[in-house]
Design a protein that fits this description.
Structural class: alpha/beta
Shape: globular
Bound molecules: zinc ion
Order of helices and strands: HEEEEHEEEEHEHEEEHEEHEHEEEHEEE
Strand content: 15-25%
Helix content: 10-25%
Mean pLDDT: 95
Largest sheet: 8 strands, mixed
Length: about 325
Amino acid sequence: MKRTSGFLLAIVMTAAAQGAIAQTVKITPLGSHDGEFCPLDRALIFEDPDGTRILYDAGRTVRGADDPRLGKIDAVLLSHVHGDHLGDLIQPSANAGECGKPDFSVKATPNSNTVNIAAGKKARLIVGGEMPSFFQVKMKAAGGDPKQVQLLRFGAHTRVGKVGVVSVPAVHTNGLPPAFLENAEMLAANGLTAYVGPPGGYVLQFSNGLVAYLSGDTGITAEQDLVVRRYYKANLAVMNIGDVFSTGPNEAAYVMNTLVRPKAVIASHANEMATKGGKLLPNTKTARFKKATKMPVHVPLSGKTMEFDGSAKCVKGC
Ligand SMILES: [Zn+2]
């Protein structure tokens, strides 16, 4: 009798352990070319084990709200309003152009790809700085409800399903290009952008224990040590490595090795054709970043879902 109950208990415990293993966060890059990591690729979808789906920095490579890769979207996060993140242009069709030179010939201005997607998906649009009032106007123009726009400034915390969403600083600029404005010829003629407050990054706290730092465009900043590592304890990082506009590969590797110290990294915003046939090309910024970084660096191949457990171990798709 005793042996039987012990045996049953063992079965129950094994099943529970398997249940815990199955609790992964799915991360799917939506780039310009299937199976590759191309210059303007920024967009990622995060899916919590509870089914919550969050789109980060739609940029130019998500083809509007009707892009079949999107599926259900609960919230859209935007790091800052530059055209390559907010989305001034999109592709006319899947894989248009080549990875090294994608075809972004469809204009999304004066609205934006980000707002069109949030409106079309009836998703929350989470932004920081002085951006909400601007986006409320845009959301209405796109047929959405201004209430979909939610403010999240540094230090604040909100929840989307079971996912905690936190805003963290990024050291960058956040001028709104005149192309996104009505009657902004004067700004354009003077070479000026509009003020919408500071740019940012995010920390996502998933229900399986995974804590992901999304750097946004940033230089090296003390907050990566003080806030992202010491307070939020991020164990996965999505790190922008493109140079010129943000940290380059060596600076980004320092941020990973010394400041954030996650268990794993997803390279992002490389501004180069980093792969061919899904294989990382030598002599690329991405290859340099991977070599200089102490923890595993995963290359985001468009359409290829990576699955992470609570300790940021990639258990599938890497
Ligand atoms: Zn950028």
